[in-house]
Design brief:
It comes from Celerinatantimonas diazotrophica. This protein is mainly beta. The protein has two domains: 68 residues, no CATH class; 110 residues, E3 ubiquitin-protein ligase SopA (Pectate Lyase C-like, 3 Solenoid), CATH 2.160.20.80. The protein is built from one helix and 15 strands. The chain is elongated and about 65 Å long.
Length: 200
Amino acid sequence: MMEPWNNGEQYLEHSFDKLQLSERCFKDIEFEECLFSDCDLSGVQFQHCKLINCKFERCNLSVAHFPNSYLFGVSFQDSKLVGIDWTKAVWPIYHRDFELKFQRCIMNDSSFFGLTLNELVLDECKLHDVDFREGDFTGSTMNACDFTHSLFMHTNLQDVDFSESTNYAIHILDNQVQGAKFTRYEALNLLEYLGIELLD
């Protein structure tokens, strides 16, 4: 099968629709202002690639790999992104906000361990068993998400908006939560780790 992309090429303002490319490996490709719709990219390896201001809609990127790839201004909508180790991508220290946005995505079993991703947007996402330990997510929006069994430890969550999010287990003494917003009822879970008994 002929590959839609050639290694070492640049693609500007291209639209890619309904591609079936699971388990392929692509190297040294730069995508800028590209739209990916209804594509199966599960298990794909993007090695030393650049994804700049790209948009993924209804794509399957589960267990995709981004070794030494650079992402900036990328948005994912209604997509499946299970089992991705985001720490393998390149996150230059001179940036703190990479303008990443995830809306209505399934992101279970993924890792953001130790990353600095300020102003990250997670909107209506399913985030079971996701590792946020040691990361800096200052000023992020994490609205209406399900954080069942996700890990937060030594995580900077200052000014993060957790409105309408559920099932998070955040120890308020082990994480920085100053200025964070929590829905009133769900915020009661934060007190459990302090050994406080709540009475009606």
